[in-house]
Amino acid sequence: MTDHECETAFEQLESAMRNAGLLWITSEVNEEIRFGRTVTKRVSSRPDTPDDVANEGLTEKRRKSKVTVAATRPYTAQEKFRTLLDSLEDVIVETQEMQDAVKKYFTSHAKNWRELRLVRTDTAGREPVIISPTTDEERVRAVAHLRELIVALKGIASDGNPA
Amino acid sequence: MGTQPNLPDLLQAIQAALGPAILPSLTTASAGWDIFEAYVLSIILEAAEIEGATIGFRNIDGSVPTIFTFRTSPGHIWWNSQPYSHAEIQFPNLPLLEAHTGVYVSGKSGLIHEADVLVLLSEEAQLSRQNQVPPRSKRSIIAAECKFYSSGLRIGLARAFVGLCSDLSSRECFFITNITGVSVEKLLTHQRKKWQSPVQPSQVVAVERLRNAVQDVFKDFRAKYRV
Question: What is the complex's ipTM, to 2 decimals?
Answer without folding.
Answer: 0.92
